[in-house]
């Protein structure tokens, strides 16, 4: 069996080399659209993320981003984009909570249900051993959270955490 850490490293490198949903698309001034720019000054990572919600503001219709920085920040944004596009906001909120939980896990192997929910996102489990890198992995998720709030200011705060 291949070593899990090698597999996870390969997933991160694949996404860093071939990022998904990269390149901003759509019009920021369209309805149900929000955009966020996030910077991680300790590492020099930057991500600009644009999200368009469905007309009922219940799900993510489209998500695109651009950025620069370390491979963890860029690969994490790529994995996240692939994971959340088309999902309901409730699902996105749950996935964001699971990913934050993974980052708080101090290098423990993730639970099977977390691996199943996060897919390639579980590859970042090892990052939780390195506090300086956790912010790199969370940068795209922070951009997503703000962009969704700006896209749907009337649906209220995401208050479950
Ligand atoms: Zn970084």
Structure description:
The chain is of the alpha+beta class and 161 residues long. It has 5 helices and 3 strands, in the order H-E-E-E-H-H-H-H. It has a 3-stranded antiparallel sheet, with helices on one face. Helix 2 runs parallel beside helix 5 (131-151). The radius of gyration is 15 Å and the shape is globular. Bound molecules: zinc ion. Zinc ion binds next to helix 2. This is Nitrogen fixation NifU-like protein. InterPro entries: NIF_FeS_clus_asmbl_NifU_N. Residues 8-136 form the NIF system FeS cluster assembly NifU N-terminal domain. GO terms for molecular function: iron ion binding; iron-sulfur cluster binding.
Q: Cα-atom Rg, whole angstroms?
A: 15 Å
Q: Reading side by side through the largest sheet, how are the strands ordered?
A: 1-2-3
What fraction of residues sit in β-strands?
15-25%
How many domains would you count in the coordinates? 1
End-to-end gap: 38 Å
Bound molecules: zinc ion
What's the CATH topology label?
Sufe protein. Chain: A
Order of helices and strands: HEEEHHHH
Weakly predicted, low-confidence segments: none
Helix fraction, binned, reads 40-55%
The profile of the biggest β sheet is: 3 strands, antiparallel
Average of pLDDT: 93
Topology, number of strands: 3
The CATH architecture comes to Alpha-Beta Complex
Give the key terms.
3 strands, binds zinc ion, 5 helices, 3-stranded antiparallel beta sheet
